[in-house]
Amino acid sequence: MVAGLPPEPRSFRPHITLARLDRSAGPVEPFLLRTAALRSAPASIDAFILYESRLGHDGVSYDAVARYALA
After folding, report:
1. Residue 3's pLDDT is what?
2. Dihedral of CA 2/48/57/12: which sign?
3. How far apart are CA 15 and CA 68, in angstroms?
4. How many angstroms separate the CA atoms of 69 and 71, rounded?
5. How far apart are alpha carbons 34 and 18 in whole angstroms?
6. Helix, strand, or coil here: 17?
7. What is the mean pLDDT of the chain?
8. Which of 66, 68, 61 is nearest to 20 (CA)?
9. Within its chain, how far is the Cα of 49 from the centroid?
10. How do 47-56 and 59-69 pair as beta strands?
11. 29 φ/ψ angles, rounded to the nearest 5 degrees
């Protein structure tokens, strides 16, 4: 126990969400084919923010947890 709470039973799975498709979108393959050629110009990044997502009945909400400056 940590702080009087039992450990989280689910395994932690860090990931980066690039797109979210619900079941009404159908198979993912057409989406991947349509977006395979997407590119962006190079960009300078001076920090990144770690977000926590919570999936609820009204969709997903995101809360900033920490900001990390890049040197």
Report:
1. 79
2. negative
3. 17
4. 7
5. 15
6. coil
7. 88
8. 61
9. 11
10. antiparallel
11. -55, -45
